[in-house]
């Protein structure tokens, strides 16, 4: 098992000796951990963290843009609560300067409840445009090409290639979730998904065998995550407590979320509620 890890990690640049794949004592790389006993405090601090990253990307420059990539699932509700309905934070968000991308997307029409964009639009985008009884200017949102959905293998590859061509050179911030199997983006653990985690040349891939529905998706590769200026995970709920132990304490390198820690290191912050972090010692 260790050999597999070495091979896989050997493809990444070691942050301490970039020209060599020999020195891979990555278990010591530190990530930041923020823990909260109250849901409200968690989403507020998460919102504040995003605002901070927005401010450093824009630095009062009206022409600058904030390139952010978001995940699906539980992320949407946290974004709504932390950015849109939070009255302290909402007025400081410069939405028109935001360029929003999706870390992964399910290859279904946008009106399908499985669509990450569809859910983001419903939970975050539509409410923010009408927040505070006024019509607000929204961000620019980059979606996959919906017209290609249902076109089979060639079309699915094209969706991934087209989406990759839209991405900025690097992201100011990538917001990730972690599934109860340790997946992040649509990068899943297990040998049958090695084609996804081992890809470092292309930025976006078609995932053709997702173990969770729908089976066809696109996903950022680790190459995109590795180049981000900041990466934050948001993980909530008791169903995540075992995997959080595997990721943060055991540091099982077979898990894609652990690979993110290993390759991004100190630029990663984990936001956890107490139920997800129940097996993580308090002094961590
Ligand atoms: O399938 C997915 O799951 C992960 C985790 O979602 P969560 O609801 O457990 O937070 C998500 O980050 C990813 O974008 C999504 O497509």
Automatic annotation (TrEMBL):
Belongs to the glucosamine/galactosamine-6-phosphate isomerase family. 6-phosphogluconolactonase subfamily. Residues 38-262 form the Glucosamine/galactosamine-6-phosphate isomerase domain. The lineage of its organism: Eukaryota, Fungi, Dikarya, Ascomycota, Saccharomycotina. Pathway: Carbohydrate degradation; pentose phosphate pathway; D-ribulose 5-phosphate from D-glucose 6-phosphate (oxidative stage): step 2/3. It catalyses: 6-phospho-D-glucono-1,5-lactone + H2O = 6-phospho-D-gluconate + H(+). It is found in: Cytoplasm. This is 6-phosphogluconolactonase-like protein. The keyword Cytoplasm applies. NCBIfam families: pgl. One of its GO terms (molecular function) is 6-phosphogluconolactonase activity. One of its GO terms (biological process) is pentose-phosphate shunt. It comes from the Eukaryota. Keywords: Cytoplasm, Hydrolase. The keyword Hydrolase applies.
């Amino acid at each position: 098992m260790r050999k597999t890890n070495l091979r896989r990690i050997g493809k990444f640049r070691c942050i301490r000796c970039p020209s060599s794949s020999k020195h891979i004592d990555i278990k010591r790389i530190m990530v930041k951990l923020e823990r909260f006993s109250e849901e409200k405090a968690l989403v507020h601090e998460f919102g504040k963290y995003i605002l901070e990253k927005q401010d450093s990307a824009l630095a009062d420059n009206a022409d600058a843009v904030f390139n952010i990539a978001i995940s699906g699932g539980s992320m949407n509700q946290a974004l709504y609560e932390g950015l849109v309905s939070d009255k302290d934070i909402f007025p400081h968000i410069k939405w028109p300067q935001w360029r929003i991308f999706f870390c992964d997307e399910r290859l279904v029409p946008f009106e399908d409840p499985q669509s990450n964009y569809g859910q983001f639009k419903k939970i975050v985008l539509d409410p923010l445009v009408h927040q505070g009884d006024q019509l607000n200017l929204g961000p620019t949102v980059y979606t996959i090409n919906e017209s290609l959905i249902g076109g089979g293998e060639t079309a699915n590859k094209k969706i991934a290639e087209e989406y990759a061509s839209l991405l900025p050179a690097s992201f100011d911030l990538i917001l990730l979730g972690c599934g109860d199997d340790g997946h992040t983006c649509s990068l899943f653990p297990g040998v049958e998904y090695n084609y996804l985690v081992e890809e470092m040349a292309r930025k976006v891939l078609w995932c053709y065998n997702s173990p969770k529905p729908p089976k066809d998706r696109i996903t950022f590769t680790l190459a995109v995550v590795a180049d981000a200026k900041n990466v934050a995970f948001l993980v909530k709920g008791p169903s995540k407590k075992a995997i959080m132990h595997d990721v943060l304490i055991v540091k099982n390198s077979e898990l894609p979320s652990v690979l993110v820690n290993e390759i991004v290191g100190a630029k990663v912050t984990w936001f956890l509620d107490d139920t997800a972090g129940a097996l993580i010692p308090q002094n961590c």
